[in-house]
Amino acid sequence: MAGYAKKRKRQPTAKPSRLPSVGFFQKLPEALVFAFFALSPLIFFSGLAPDGHPFFTLYDLPKFYFMMAFTFLLAGCYFWSVGKDPIRAATLVKFLTTNLGLRLLALWWLALFVSSFQALVPAASFLNLFHYFSLLVLCLVLARLFSQPSRRWAAVYGLIGALLIFVPVGIFQYLGFQVPLLMPILGPASTLGYRNPAAHFIALVLPFALFAVWRHWCLWRAHRTYTQLFLFFALLLVALTALALLFMNYSRTAIMALLVEALALPLVWLLAKKEGEADRGGKRRRLGRALLGSLLLVVLISSLIMVFPDSRKRVVSSFNKLKRGGPTRMLEARYYHWGNTLMMIKEQPLLGLGLGNWRFSYPLYSASFKRDPLQNYKMQIRKTHNDYLQLAAECGIPALLLFLLFWGRQFYLLRYSTPESDGEEDWRLPLAASLLAFSVIMFFSFPMQMAYSRMFCFFLLALGEARAWPALSK
Q1: What count of other Cβ atoms lies within 10 Å of the Cβ of residue 334?
Q2: 16, 141 in Cβ contact below 8 A?
Q3: What is the mean pLDDT of residues 215-236?
């Protein structure tokens, strides 16, 4: 036995592994999520015309291809890692079989698929269908990745990283300096094209930026470190600068979305009380704080409207049109777009005219309700400026109802606190604010017809489903 033990001692020890540490693989999902959300709004193509002048046309299409490619890269990495871990694979199967939101999303995609057979231009329909399929995959992957709060924060800091480039560029051009390779238009341009999508982007991202500000304020109060204090002021500066750029862009829809957030967010905070939380001040005190918070936010937004002349002129002009001609006058060209679209829905209420085919079919209906003055041989209207109506016209009323059911589910889930998935932070407040803003923008604009904002919609849905499952999966 002694000789045997001696032999054992002479055996060479195992060489240390040269593979990367486990920590690298643990941080890889966060790095990919951060890169995806930081780069997506910044991707655009431009070039030079034969006379040497820059031209600016490809703002949406490059984002479309980039996000689809990155989606399948992220999904490939995720499913590869799941295949290596039986426990995670079992959890994914359980998520797929028990999550009600994912079932509704799959049914909605099937409704889009069926409508595509009605398309006047099938190529446009199936291209949009494939894009929605990639976003469905993205929603599934993000919903699983967001089960860990650190990966949610990776997405939030990625959005803030995009703001660090996006906002200075917009302000620089607003001050009258033409940024090379950006569209030379009146008002600040951006990597999203023109002022309206830029303002919408800020309105959607701002709640998460302020949520990060609040997080670092709480961390500073808990630990009293200079790093947390610096991050608090730095992120607060980014958020306030982005808010200023929103009013420089003078988008009525973005300002309206911001007002809705200001009016509803304190109410959401009041209703989103954590289960079992002691009500020290009583219901009346909490209600008073909510009303006071709404009032202060409305005063702040109204002051900003008055400070920036372009926003003030835009809002005053809308009120004057409302006073002279009612809602019809204030809606301007949307009045004709919406009325004619309702005639399209009346003719094809079940299956619609085909996903992505509204712009091809609209010339046939441009005078069915009232003649659209913007539709002529020189100009063709491409968007309804109301995503709800456009979805019903393209894919039928059942597809719209399925979308509204899934969208409404996200607001219903906000009633519940899920500390087992949310961690110490209450993610309901920024999620509710961004959902409300997106709902308003969809009513007056066309975010679901643009690659980046369409992706942002599925990001919100993934975040809502991540915090709800498994406690609220039914």
Answers
A1: 19
A2: no
A3: 92
* DSSP element (H, E) containing 292: helix 282-307
Cα 470 from chain centroid? 23
Residue 170 is predicted with a pLDDT of: 84
- Taking phi first (over 0 means left), then psi (-120 to 50 degrees means alpha), and beta for anything else, what does residue 445 get? beta
Sign for the CA dihedral angle at 287, 149, 297, 200 comes to: negative
What band does 72 get if pLDDT is binned at 50, 70 and 90? very high
Share of the chain above pLDDT 90, in %: 46
Tell me the residue type at 458.
F
Is the CB of residue 210 less than 8 Å from the CB of residue 164? Answer: no
Q: What is the pLDDT of residues 120-129, one digit of tens each?
A: 999 999 999 9
Contacts of residue 461, Cβ cutoff 8 Å, sequence gap at least 6: 101, 105, 139, 143, 406, 410
Pairing of strands 45-48, 54-58: antiparallel
* pLDDT in the model for residue 4: 39
Helix ranges (H only) for 13-85 are 22-39, 61-83
Q: Which residues pair with 190 in a beta bridge?
A: 193
The predicted pLDDT at position 135 comes to 95
- What is the rounded CA–CA span in Å between residue 165 and residue 150? 23
Q: Provide the residue ranges of all domains of the chain, joining segments of one domain with +.
A: 31-41+59-273+282-468
DSSP for residue 15: P
Contact 21, 144 (CB under 8 A): no
Instruction: Evaluate if residue 361 carries a pLDDT over 70.
Output: yes
Taking the C-alpha atoms of residue 367 and residue 373, their distance in angstroms, rounded to an integer, is: 9
Q: Classify burial at 160, counting beta carbons within 10 Å of its beta carbon; exposed 0-12, middle 13-18, buried 19 or more.
A: buried
What is residue 7's predicted lDDT score, i.e. its pLDDT?
44
Residue predicted with more confidence, 293 or 426: 426
With beta carbons less than 8 A apart as the criterion, state whether 124 and 449 touch: no
Q: What are phi and psi of 48, to 5 degrees?
A: -120, 135
pLDDT at 396: 94
Alpha helix positions (H), 308-427: 309-331, 334-347, 358-365, 387-395, 397-413, 419-422
With 90 as the cut, is the pLDDT of residue 132 above it? yes
Nearest-angstrom CA–CA distance, 246 and 260: 15
Residue-wise pLDDT for 8-40, tens only, equals 444 444 444 343 434 545 678 899 999 999 999
How many Å apart are CA 460 and CA 238, to the nearest integer?
22
| CA-wise closest residue to 108 among 129, 138, 123 | 129
3-state secondary structure of 56: strand
